[in-house]
Design goal:
Strand content: over 45%
Number of helices: 1
CATH class of the largest domain: Mainly Beta
Strand order of the largest sheet: 1-3-4-5-6-7-8-9
Order of helices and strands: HEEEEEEEEE
Shape: globular
Number of domains: 2
Keywords: Signal
CATH topology of the largest domain: Lipocalin
Distance between the termini: 53 Å
């Protein structure tokens, strides 16, 4: 293969790879309402999560029987991380969710600051 043909083949392959990567990122649309199930030493909770997405950045609202909290997060490939801050008496607590995306599901671990941990699943409503 000549140098020109080799270079063309390389550029074509690179363009196809980049196109596939963009499509994969676009396929990671997590915007919308999610039903969470959180399991921890405190028991089982079932809050709602509403997410808005701009590229790989997330903003949203977490709501449970105690109130609402703002959510921020990111998506990187199959991994999603989002955080919220809650005020427990005299103690601000950062809750971090780290999960793996499925088609309409998320599953992973949740860390309640330095006081505990658990697991979670989420399904798109």
């Amino acid at each position: 293969m000549s140098g020109v043909h080799s270079r063309f083949a390389f550029l074509l392959a690179a363009a196809m790879f980049a196109s596939a990567a963009v499509r994969a990122e676009e396929d990671r649309d997590v915007a919308g309402r999610w039903a969470l199930t959180i399991r921890s030493e405190a028991g089982v909770q079932r809050p709602q999560l509403d997410l808005r997405q701009q590229r790989n950045q997330l903003l949203g609202t977490y709501a449970d029987e105690f109130g609402k909290a703002d959510v921020t997060g990111t998506i990187d490939g199959e991994e999603i991380v989002f955080r919220l801050r809650v005020e427990v008496p005299d103690y601000p607590l950062i809750v971090t969710f780290t999960g793996t995306l499925g088609k309409d599901t998320i599953q992973g671990d949740v860390q309640f600051g330095d006081i505990g941990k658990g697991t979670f699943t989420a399904t798109r409503d």
